[in-house]
Amino acid sequence: MNNLLARATPYIQATPLLVILGFFLAVPILLLLVVSFWDYDFAGMYPGFFTFNYAETLTSWVTWRTYGNTLKFAALVWAITAFVGFWVAYFLAFHVRSATTQMILFLVCTVPFLTSNIIRMISWIPVLGRNGLINSGLVGADIVDQPVEWLLYSDFAVVLAMVHLYTLFMVTPIFNTMMRIDKSLVEAARDAGAKDWQIIWNVILPLAKPGIAIGSIFVVTLVMADFSTVQVMSGGQSASVALMMRNQMSLLQYPAAAANAIVLLVLVLFMVAGILRIVDIRKEL
Amino acid sequence: MTETSKTGISRRNVLKGGAAAAAGAAIGSGVITGFPTIWAQNPITLRQFGTGVSNLNAIAEKCKEDLGITLEMTATDSDAAAQRAVTQPDSYDIADIEYWILKKVFPTGVIQPMDTSKLTYYDKIVPLFKTGKLLPDSVIAQGTAPHTVGFVEAPGDKTFAKGETGWFTMVPTIYNADTLGIRPDLVGREISTWADIMDPAFKGKTAIINVPSIGIMDAAMIMEAMGNITYGDKGNMTTAEIDATIDFLIKAKQDGQFRAFWKSFDESVNLMSSGEVVIQSMWSPAVAAVRSKGIACKYQPLKEGYRSWGGGLGLAAHLQGAQLDAAYEYINWYTSGWVGGYLNRQGYYSAAMDTAKEHMSADEWGYWIEGKAATGDILAPDGTVMEKAGAIRDGGSFEERMGKVACWNSVMDEDRYMVRRWNEFIAA
Fold first, then answer.
1. Of A181, A232, B158, B367, which is least packed with CB atoms within 10 Å of its CB?
2. Do the chains contact at B427 and A239, CB–CB below 8 Å?
3. Domain B180-303+397-427 class?
4. What is the mean pLDDT of each run of 10 residues along chain B (428 residues)?
């Protein structure tokens, strides 16, 4: 009896998590998968097994182009946030000496996050617009004759807003990993004659990899699933996968959107798997 | 147990029916002026859902006050409204939907036609909704013109009647004529045609609406104005016509003609007021919103005419007995003038102009409907000044505006194909 209880204990302990994940994650995804094979018209969805939602999605050049565009955003934003995030975290972890200052500065980083995503995004518009802050400054200072058009409603604006929104998701995990690096390793490297860049390249960067990997997962999944930033900052001129889905949903083409969601899910899972293959998060934590 | 409860319900129904009959008799006889408050003693709730334009709280409050009928209003976007109308017919009593939605929804049998003899103000309803002609010499517009889906031969019919009959599918509530909005201070020249939005001078300073079913119509007006194509019916394009229209839009987009595509009301307001665009698709409340910031904005009448839209109230098929009577009473109240005046003052148009006139001041009537210069300040329903004395409404009088409708919002047979191609345009 005792033996049985002992064997059952881990399962009982895991049950709450299993129930939550099952109910809020597995079941919805399963439903999504089922619905993606259904037929639809304006009035409703009709159960069945049809593959044309996938066929229409995968054979259309719009889909490929949109995925290409979304991946481009993901790559650009990832590269910039990783670069910025690494140096911000490095500064916080190794240059700021006192723990109090570290925490204060870290909290300062999070201050913008006290406002909503949408507000932070939209507040770029008066800055970047044709008659915005930057353009009036440039024209007023006679640096340019005509306002610079590509600042707003362009890919540049989208990437800028995304970097602004998502950099902290990179800073936090990297900072966290760097704080765990034993300072004596850095001292040892210095004693052994390593230069600053050698310490960063050979000691800190390898040890910060799990943090970079976690941050990358955050940033990549956020960018891949983003629709509001792309819609607002590109002025509707640019497409993203999630925006395509949102268009379909607003037209009540749920099965088509579900098929799209499944394709995106598979792609993102592959990307995450790729990141995890390069960096073993668990081993290095 | 079941027996008892059944009797109970039916007895109550009889009572309600009696009360309604009494109310009906009272109105019919004209003995009582104003509206009987009988519903207050025997409370009736009508659940109305719709696209939001006419889901106004002020109307629900006034309805409660005048009729004692509680209106529960729910607003959705138009596609969700179409879906709900069909899939949850028991979830509403009154459907407040646009005519093109009705065209999709009515054949499924969820809306019952109205007996015109029970509609007190049927004779006052603008002929546009009965014959398609505002004035005897008007040309019938393309698209889903309300009169084409306005009547059936008999209750239970699934197809629309060719002409006016005694069975009205919806009583019109609110309608208007849309055109392009411009910044008169920034365009620097006369704007007179839909084709002007493609003028190279406005490169990178134009926008169109990114709602496929409406955007395609604006594009069609532009295409036709430029002389690129003549559509059989702009409101029901063939696939070849859709292809031609979308290819044209894609080319214009790649040439950088557009600054943005807007999806929501506030986006269109911001694009215009910040000067990002100088000419774009717009809705009349958005023009008013830009103007209220003190920025010049004009709802420019164009020679090809307007793209128009309209909605109405339809009765759910399940309504019967006292509820049905209450619904008729509500609709009669709706067309009796107060609501009409309220809507006209917002820059929309109401179905029965004659009754609305009695609820508007002579100056308001002159400004909003007759196209005359305002003699005093024109106030919004909340009391703020909308237009100063001397202002003239863009496009002029009701007859000038609604008499020049080129096309009604509509649903195409090739809808799905059109949406797919529209998405290509946005992704291109």
1. B158
2. yes
3. alpha beta
4. 39 43 42 49 83 79 91 83 87 93 90 94 93 88 93 92 93 93 93 95 93 90 93 93 95 93 87 93 88 90 93 94 92 94 90 93 94 89 82 92 92 85 85
How many residues make up chain B in this entry?
Answer: 428
Strands B405-408 and B385-387: unpaired
Alpha-carbon span B292 to B325, nearest angstrom: 42
Domain coordinates in residue numbering, chain B = 38-176+308-357, 180-303+397-427
d(CA A204, CA B136) in angstroms, rounded, equals 84
DSSP-assigned letter for residue A48? S
Mutate to test the interface with B, among A251, A252, A260 (most CBs of B within 10 A): A251
Nearest CA in chain B to A40: B416
Write out the two tokens for B341.
């005046």
pTM attached to this predicted model: 0.78
Query: Which residue on chain A is closest to B253 by alpha carbon?
Result: A237
Six token digits for residue B7: 């009797």
Residue tagged 């990179």 (tokens): A170
Strand pairing report for B171-178 and B349-350: antiparallel
Type of residue numbered B23: A
Taking the CA of residue A33 and the nearest CA in chain B, the distance in Å comes to 22
Structure tokens at B346: 């917002």
The reply to whether domains B38-176+308-357 and B180-303+397-427 share a CATH topology is yes
Q: What is the ipTM of this complex?
A: 0.74
Q: B38-176+308-357 has which fold? A: D-Maltodextrin-Binding Protein; domain 2 (3.40.190)
Which of B225, B228, B252 lies closest to B241, judged by CA? Answer: B228
